[in-house]
Design brief:
alpha+beta, Creatine Amidinohydrolase, four-stranded antiparallel β-sheet, binds magnesium ion
């Protein structure tokens, strides 16, 4: 399937879905502390999403059991919510998708549980900043390769790894549309960015080696070397040649800074 470019009206609907994801992640942030389970987080998220007249996109997606992907420490993405209590020093990537008014929102944030080591803290800061570097590239006339190159150049300058097998994606009526948006690549290569393009950019950055494997649960993607990984995701549109970030971490950070 080719790229489906969106009208400004459609982009406003995508923004509403993306904002609901940000608010849902903030609800999760409110309860997150050592001792809480990812299943408890999942229940809070599902209820909040449904209370807003939306559906949790991930639930039942290819049979996925949760409303959230909760990926702890060495789990990079696609972790299944479970009843194991989170511990002080853990990190957990919480990825959430909602479907509302015909359009999807999809955003992820990696949270600290209690106090984390300085090393882990830097991994989170660099991964989040690599997403900002990628977003800066989302202007008309640039190419998909500029996005990946920005993430890769920044994260690798800290000695971190960039997961290759999983990528960002177009976003619309479907959760995963064309184009693929890798977190690595060469500047100046790939699809040209133009008005109406809506993509989810989601760097997955490893503290050690970039190689991954899938667990036998059929979902969880973990680092091969067992070192932690971080993941942040924003939904971004190009309107009038400029970047519009549709999702937001504002609500999350209001909770975290309280
Ligand atoms: Mg996501
Ligand atoms: Mg995504």
């Amino acid at each position: 399937m080719g790229v489906i470019y969106k009208t400004e009206e459609e982009i406003e609907l995508l923004r509403e879905s993306s904002l609901l994801v940000g608010k849902t992640l903030a609800e999760v942030a409110k309860i997150l502390k050592p001792g809480v389970t990812t299943l408890q987080m999942d229940a809070i998220a599902e209820e909040f999403i449904r209370d807003h007249g939306a559906k949790p996109t991930f639930k039942g997606y290819d049979g996925f059991p949760g409303s959230l992907c909760t990926s702890v420490n060495e789990v990079v993405v696609h972790g299944i919510p479970d009843n194991k209590p989170l511990e002080n020093g853990d990190i957990v990537s919480v990825d959430c998708g909602v479907f509302m008014n015909g359009f999807n929102g999809d955003s992820a944030y990696t949270f600290k549980v209690g106090e984390v080591s300085n090393q882990v803290n830097q991994l989170l800061e660099v991964t989040k900043e690599s997403l900002n570097k990628a977003i800066e590239q989302c202007v008309e006339g640039n190419r998909v390769g500029d996005i990946g190159s920005a993430v890769q150049t920044y994260a690798e300058s800290y000695g971190y790894g960039i997961v290759r097998e999983l990528v960002g994606h177009g976003l619309g009526k479907d959760l995963h549309e064309a184009p693929e948006v890798p977190n690595y690549g060469k500047a100046g290569r790939g699809l040209k960015l133009k008005n109406g393009l809506v993509i989810a950019i989601e760097p997955m950055v490893t503290m050690g080696d970039r190689r991954i494997k899938q667990l036998r649960d059929g979902w969880s993607i973990v680092t091969f070397d067992g070192l932690p990984a971080a993941h942040f995701e924003h939904d971004v549109a190009i309107i009038n040649g400029r970047t519009e970030v549709l999702s937001t971490f504002k609500y999350i950070e209001e909770v975290l800074n309280n």
